[in-house]
Design a protein that fits this description.
With about 200 residues, this protein is an all-alpha fold. The chain is built from 7 helices and no strands. Helix 2 crosses helix 3 and helix 5 packs across helix 6. It is elongated.
Length: about 200
């Protein structure tokens, strides 16, 4: 994996937590772990999602990826309904569980090993085919649309990744603005507590 680079090397969004309300502060700090045992995902499924996430966000930091997996498990096991989905696409619980099984079958078919046993380049090639809807034929694809499976995995992974406070700091996001709020709203201006870019190489 490439080295993570940031224009805000001295910025730590967690230093601003005293300005957040108690409920928000509790939610954000929980994203740092430790995390409870998964409610829905098996250990094998969790490991697959972690491995897939490494390719999607191009990051191998386990502390962040563990949160991504936890977020995925929480999302899938939540009684709250998901967004709209295309006709013929099963609910996300079925889509992800059966989809991960299909990915394992695909790896076995192409490389004679499970997804977690093949090398990273082979994993990436398989995911690229899945994204394009051009993975090798399996009976599973009749019930699990390839593109929708990849889209659901990628959307959930990216959403979780960019809600982690370490990533917030790296992209210069100042975190929750409530109840403090923003004062300098003119283009190009930042409040004193916001991240300042360091353009020195």
């Amino acid at each position: 994996m490439q080295e993570i680079r940031t224009r805000y090397p001295k910025y730590d969004v967690l230093k601003e937590q005293e300005h957040w309300d108690e409920h928000t502060r509790e939610i954000v700090k929980k994203r740092l772990g430790p995390f409870p045992k998964n409610n829905f995902l098996s250990d094998h499924e969790a490991d697959m999602i972690l491995s897939i996430a490494m390719h999607i966000v191009y990051d191998n930091r386990k502390d962040i990826l563990d949160y991504v997996v936890h977020h995925m498990d929480t999302t899938i096991s939540s009684p709250i309904g998901e967004d709209q989905r295309k006709v013929g696409t099963p609910e996300q619980k079925t889509l992800i569980r059966q989809g991960l099984k299909a990915i394992d079958k695909l790896a076995q078919q192409q490389y004679n090993a499970s997804f977690l046993e093949i090398d990273p380049n082979q994993q990436l090639s398989l995911l690229e085919d899945l994204q394009k809807g051009k993975a090798q034929q399996l009976k599973d694809w009749q019930q699990i649309p390839q593109k929708e499976l990849f889209k659901k995995l990628a959307t959930n992974i990216v959403s979780a990744y960019y809600s982690h406070p370490i990533v917030w700091s790296e992209i210069g996001y100042g975190g929750p603005a409530y109840p403090r709020g923003y004062v300098r709203v003119e283009k190009g201006l930042t409040d004193p507590w916001e991240a300042k870019r360091d353009d020195k190489e």
